[in-house]
Amino acid sequence: MEPFIQLQGTAAPLPRINIDTDAIIAVQHVYTLSKAGLGQYLFHRWRYAEDGSETREFVLNREPFRHASILVARANFGCGSSREHAVWALADFGFRSIIAPSFASIFYENCIKNGILPVTLPEDAVEELLAVLERNPGETVTVDLRSCQVVFPDRSIHAFEIDEARRDTLLQGLDPITLAESHEEDIAAYQRRDRQARPWVWAQRIDLMNRLS
Amino acid sequence: MTPRTLFQKLWDQHHIADLPGGESLIHIDRHLLYEITSAQAFEGLRSTGRAVRNPELTYGTTDHLISTDRGRGDDTVRGGKILIQAFRNNTREHAIRHFDVHDPQQGIVHVIAPELGIALPGITLVCGDSHTGTVGALGAWAWGIGTSSVEQVLATQTLAVRKPKTMRIHVDGVLGNGVTAKDLILFLIGQIGTAGATGYALELSGQAISAMPMEGRFTLCNMGVEAGARTTLIAPDDTTFDYVRGREFAPVGDAFEMAVSHWRGLASDEGATYDAELHFDASVVAPQVTWGTSPEQVAAIDALVPDPTQIEDKEEREAVQRAIEYMDIRPGVPLLGLKIDNVFIGSCTNSRISDLQAAAAVARGRKVAGHVRAIVVPGSMTVKREAEALGLDRIFLDAGFEWREPGCSMCAAVNSDRVAPGSRCVSTSNRNFEGRQGPGARTHLASPAVAAAAAIAGKLTDTRELGAS
User: Fold this and answer.
1) Does any domain span residue A47?
2) Chain A residues with CB inside 8 Å of B78's CB?
């Protein structure tokens, strides 16, 4: 995974609350075996009219937001379905960071696993940023994961918090599966103990073997 | 010893190792898969040469994309067949038990997991679906994950987890006549909001919870995620054990008794503390219906559509305004009498036998209004057979409902069961987001009884006024 250290880029304002993963990518666009190419479907319902033409007023259809790498939205971003396709679509479009007052839990985790930094800032700071971006479209925002700071267009600095494990994952581009695999001995020992302590959890193995024999 | 909560006990039980940065490696006892959110995970295993570590703890079902037409096969919505067939190949290749399209136990993952005894009290269970918390009703720690995590569980049977805070919602009192688990959970979401329990493992307790049958408890825990709770739990008790006993994959004989004695120790200890505690009174809950595009936008069915001009908070006012426009309703107008076009009775929230019985009790001897398309989709093949043995299918068919094959169906509109643009649907499912039931669809969430009553009347109706048939 590509490490996330610092990002300076165009920030797109999307001042809505409770933006759900159905809105980020509609279910009819997840019939795919691949993670690639989903950016074209991002926010499809808001981005395109029924005849397939672009809706002029939607932020991502306006310059310079077509090339935005930071998305700014209101609270509870990414609620709803667990579909990771939502994050793959945001990433494929070009977003590498999302700033909001709060995120739904599964979505937040999906971001980390795909090298996208979800930044949680206080509500008044997000409102201020949304207002600045509406007034001066195309202003640059800097997100620095080393210092855990966001620099707004007016140079004001806003600190954010992220837990250490997730920060390390992003900074180093770590693969969580490799990390878990390094504990293979612990996992094997746990399972040996658990077969004794809670045999009913493992009873299906016998069931399965009976079935197959 | 320090008193522990139910969640803390489950955490301790499944803790394998501490990881750098404050996360812990947690063992996963059951991993459930379905055809959409697993495809890229299997592809990941293939590209990295990894195997499935514990296929015997892994189960699959085809539920989201599957057609609900009689005589169905792999054909479904355009583009769906390839995922159904890829899932079949993946589960075969990795020796995973799969309740496939023609399996007599196929059904919605969160319905069949407890129904077959795959989900048990005291276990950890994950699935690449946000409604996985459903089986927390058994006293299990169950939560929804993304596809990257599905891949990790396939490869290692573990997940790295940061310990959530704990919240308890205590519901005392007795639910009124005609008020169901669905009404209670919608009411609670309305009270605490869609992010009210974000970051928490949520435990439900109290008289109203203890008195609730197992299937109602599934409905409650199913929608915990709509209040932000990744996992929702209810302490296992005799209701739970009676439910689990005799299920196909549940332990039998001595193993079952041994399990029960373990499970009896799972309830939160006297004096255990939570990071947050809330109290509600069940007796004040009326039948609920959502009016907006978020599950928190909910009201008693005899209430009025809210007036955004009365809302001070700017964000909330805009959200309400947007929802009212999308839903094509008018501020200050009663919800009762709102004309509807569709009714959907089904989904992992409300497609179990007691849900179908509640709907059938309303539908019996009545007719669906001429302008309404109403469908009933049982949660599993097992539920379907049981309903047919009870004659519920006849009641629905005679009343003019469609009686369909099991699957997620019109809840998520993943297959071709959709609400037409601009149409209004009363649905027993869990999400009323814009476009959730199809582009432009307008969803009102409600209980099976309220949904059935709406189908008959052709408009939102108070079940309490319909009278006995």
Assistant:
1) yes
2) 31
